[in-house]
# Entry
Amino acid sequence: MVSKIIKNFVTIIFFVVGFILISESMASAGDKCHRNADNKIVLDDTSGTPVSHDSGSTYDQDYCNEEPLNYKIKIFEAMVCSSDPYIAGTGDTGADPNFTSCTNFFTNTSGKDVIIQPNVKADLFDGSNVALPIGTFPYSVIILSNELNIKHHETFIDTGGNDADIRGYKASGFSTGKTCYSHGKTTTYTGYASDTVHGKTIISTSAGTGSSLGLICTDSFDPDNPPSDYDYTTEIIDSIDDTCDSSNDCDTTFRPYIGYQNSSAINGRYAGVLVQDDGRTVGTNRNNSTRIAYIMNFNNSIEITEDISSFEMQFDTNSSVSIDWDAAASVTNAIKLGADPFQVKYIVTN
# Structure
């Protein structure tokens, strides 16, 4: 089964001089929310499955994927490789990747925070020129934090054309309104709800408990003057393989790797390994797994010559936020925003 973590991605574009980053769209619309003419998400707001993925014909889903307004990632390294860096694990035990044939073209030991916004360019290299290695490279690796951050808001309308009445986070009771926004909470991709991961408090989301919800809802949200608690929510990718075991039990089972998967979007295959702070040692548990090694094997090797004119790495943010709901007492509750990562596509022009 293909991991949803690696399946949905954002888009970064690096040019040889300056290496500019921009979001683009490569994802399918299969899990997109149904919207009305005013771009509001339409919900059956009395149902536990309030979302339609088929243009409003059927409301039978408890999530939908959208393009986040602000998607923040932390990149530590990017490299090209002449030999396969992926080493397969066994069962729930991973193996260290092998980067001996790899050459870095980006390194930041502290990690570079990059905010990806729709149609907005950002500079990963702060305006400096970058030297690319000359050669033929069938593989590439990106090392990034496995904590993905999203700041996002949405406005909802019900199937009758009225403002939806959604319940959200409040320390006591519930917030309520037609617009729901992120507010700085931390969740895990698998739903693992230990007290802390990476020293961060993990909320255990539960419909019917306002203090556990991951979004705040209101009727008075102003995007030009947002409330002070409008902030990034964090999702920790705490198991790279969303099947984990025979019963898909990722809550109690940890697995730090997923083997190569075919992908037409990158014209090749990808694999993923959760690694520790050194970026080289495979993770052995949720707390020491802090980074993702995203490994690509291209059908056609990257050819970098002295005549290169552009080098692009593309991430797609089109469907990189999952908006999740559940119902309690026949009322829709805004559970959380889930962060779905990226597929990466390279385009080289010589």
Remarks:
- Helices lie at 4-7.
- The CA atoms of residues 205 and 212 lie 5 Å apart.
